[in-house]
Amino acid sequence: MSGLDSYAQPGQEHPSAPMPNRPMRPTKLIPLLTLFAATLPAQWQQVTTPFKPTSRRAGAMAFHESTNRMVLYGGLSATPSQVLSDTWTFNGLWAPQPATAAGRWGHRIVSNTVSNKLVTFGGRSPTINSLSSETVEWNGSNWTTLPTVGAPSARFLYGMCYDSQRDVVVLFGGRNLTGPNNETWELSGSTWTQKATLNSPLAREEMGMVYDASLGRTILFGGCDESIGVIYGDTWQYDGNDWVEMAPAVSPTPRFRGMMEYDSQRSRSVYYGGFDGSIAQTETYEYSGNDWVLSPQVTVPTATTEALSGYDSLRKRFVIFGGFGGAFLDETWELTGDTAGTFTLYGSGCDTANGTPGLTGTVPNIGTTLDLGFSNLGAAQTVIVVLGASNTVWNGLPLPLDLASVGLPGCGLLASADALEVTLVTGGLAQFGFAIPNQISLINLSLYCQGIVTDFVPDLTFLGATRGGRAVIGQ
User: Fold this and answer.
1) CATH fold of 44-335, please?
2) pTM over 0.85
3) CA triplet 85, 86, 90: central angle to 5 degrees?
4) Superfamily name and number for 2-36+342-472
5) Model confidence pLDDT, tens digit, residues 179-208
6) Do 44-335 and 2-36+342-472 have the same topology in CATH?
7) Domain map of the chain by residue range?
8) Which is nearest to 370 in space by CA: 4, 15, 9, 24?
9) For 297-335, how does the pLDDT look when each residue is reduced to its tens digit (9 = 90+)?
10) CA 428, 431, 432 angle in degrees (round to 5)?
11) Is the distance from CB of 84 to CB of 77 less than 8 angstroms?
């Protein structure tokens, strides 16, 4: 822990000396943060194209980075009801592909950015009522079956995403011929492995599930268990070892059959639509690690359930096609998203004698000051403010990093220690201000922080830590 230990090194200012609260010098950290973005309107817009796929629901699509195209595959038609097997690509215009594949619906497609292939599993295939346990890949021109070891049982309406940090496909739940399950599976290379987790969401189907690369977590929301007539509105995170249920103060109502994608440009998960058992919803919610935020929309897509969706990382758009909105549809809609700043918490804090130290943050917009507040502190304590560009790695080491070396075993460093500042405690509270330059290039940049609570009397002692904080800089 050279960054934290440096406070006790000879020749440096001793942390027990009086130090005023002061804003962090931006030059320490801003050059380390290299995410750039432009301001975009935050509305859904329908896209009209000369050619397009036929009306359908419950198919799947995902963005293929090697060809810079959204790839659509399969689905279910209305009348006559039949499982579809066609493949289309989209980059603002739809184009049919000559690829051959079995009919499939109720499946998901994810993009493996390491192998440069799209991956799908199972679904209803090759007929409407048959179930598959195949793993199929798209190589840019065709679909091929991937021979795998230890595949999950045949199922459809599951959740699936690609964990880019660990290079694994994560699959959860889904429904077989008898009902839903709550199994967690991972695909590494050509091997499927079922994960035994201490905690898990209940059995379900038709949930929203994505991988948030900025948090390094799989995010799951909602779904249903039709076998017992239950609709869920819970939010979970999965780190590769265990599922943790979140407790957002604001959340969508229980729903299923909505569309959920990770917006890599704005570092947040977006959920649209869904069915609450009575009414088809037309709300757009965003999640960046703590609470869900309702995004005001003037115009919304016609399709509110079972649309095919994906995120175009080149054109920076959430794209949906088809779905159901009173009828089977063949419309294409796109959402660019807004650039409002957000501050959210993640991870777990470490208790001091006073309990868990608190952390709050103001809305982080360019040209303003991000004010961090620390609470539930002892009178003689000091807070070392950790600020960094990552919450997944620091100096080549994965985060969270055990702070046992500074006397806090089992307590995790949750933000990369790219910059450290010290602020004093007054009346059990402490504050720290970080001036955000008025630079458009900083919009959508993520800044991570944490407070390490210390006591300098009579010697430097590390007492505990806050949860991690994530500031997504807005306009």
Assistant:
1) Neuraminidase (2.120.10)
2) no
3) 140
4) Immunoglobulins (2.60.40.10)
5) 999 999 999 999 999 999 999 999 999 999
6) no
7) 2-36+342-472, 44-335
8) 24
9) 778 999 899 999 999 999 999 999 999 999 999 999 999
10) 150
11) yes
